[in-house]
Design a protein that fits this description.
The chain is built from five helices and seven strands. By secondary structure, it is α+β, with helices and mostly antiparallel strands. It has a domain of 103 residues: 3-Layer(aba) Sandwich (Aminopeptidase), CATH 3.40.630.30. Strand 3 and strand 4 form a beta hairpin.
Length: 148
């Protein structure tokens, strides 16, 4: 069973691991901030999470393997997988859905995704997310608690 490790509890090795993933070109290209994140900025961000109850960030681990990162910012989710692994999107999405609906008791979960990010759109669609809004670059997709 996967385990969520809160970013504020990461050890030094895990902090560096997450940062290296986040700065991987095929991950950062799907982020709102597409520039490399510095270690200082990463550490400062983790520090802000200690005082911000509307943001939850986790490193997901299963059987001593780090699978990826999930986050919840209000009712918007984010996920990215360990770049060395394949086929872990379902596990990560299940983790954040469970956290959002069971722990945070949210009625609705949303995702913003680039229209060109076909794998993410397929993943969200498999989990019955529906497109509720779009612009020239992005889709906003939504899953309500009663539709899961």
């Amino acid at each position: 069973m996967p385990k969520n490790i809160n970013f504020i509890d990461l050890n030094e090795k895990e902090i560096h691991l997450v940062l290296s993933w986040r700065n991987t070109p095929h991950i950062k290209k799907w982020m709102h901030t597409q520039e490399d994140i510095t270690l200082t900025d990463h550490l400062n961000f983790i520090e802000t999470l200690k005082h911000n109850k509307s943001k939850d960030y986790f490193l997901v681990k299963q059987d001593n393997i780090y699978l990826g990162v999930i986050d919840l910012n209000g009712n918007f989710l984010g996920i990215y997988a360990n770049p060395d692994l394949k086929k872990v999107g379902d596990i990560l999405l299940k983790q954040i859905i469970n956290f959002a609906f069971s722990t945070k008791k949210l009625p609705v979960l949303k995702a913003e995704v680039y229209k060109t990010n076909t794998p993410a759109i397929k993943l969200y669609t498999r989990f019955e997310f529906k497109t509720i809004k779009e612009n020239e670059k992005m889709l906003t997709m939504e899953l309500s608690y009663e539709n899961r």
